[in-house]
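explain this chain.
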Amino acid sequence: MKIINNSNSVIIILHEIYGINEHIQMVCEKFSNDGYDIICPNLINLSEPFSYDLEEEAYKHFMNNIGFDSAVQQVKQLIIEAKKQYKHVYLLGYSIGATIAWLCSGEEKICNGIIGYYGSRIRDYTNITPKCPTLLIFPTEENSFNVQELVDSLIKRNIDVYMLKGKHGFSNPFSKDYCIQSSKEAERLVDEFLFYTNK
């Protein structure tokens, strides 16, 4: 999916395990309305996204058929192509998309900034040191790990990390865990980050 505004800045938006669903389309439209060009690759290689009640199936599909290594290579290739055309290239990822963005960030001069919402699997790759401006936003609650411990370890490395009240998916109006206050706060943080790195 691409939206072209003839901007000199592009945001590559990386979806969750579900694919390009209503939420991701809404995110693409929001940043397009802000004047950015948008590239949103279909990393799950399916014509239709998974519904939220198929979380386990969606996760298995991603891990068994795509995996992080393949997704990262695909995204890096997109960045290389985008840099030929744009002055500023950003990665914005949700959940596995945030982890993919994080995995790209360790490469020198890869892009102008990465933003990650609730990249819970970042905990498996804390050895990475981002080589570009990085904004990570986590919920206060995750079922599978202690968010505070991960956030503390990342803050020590001068990464912009925020923990906002809520659960995984708090910024998604289609999620049962949507939290309007945290969603608005996250949006403000992202807009600020893009403003200061886009000069």
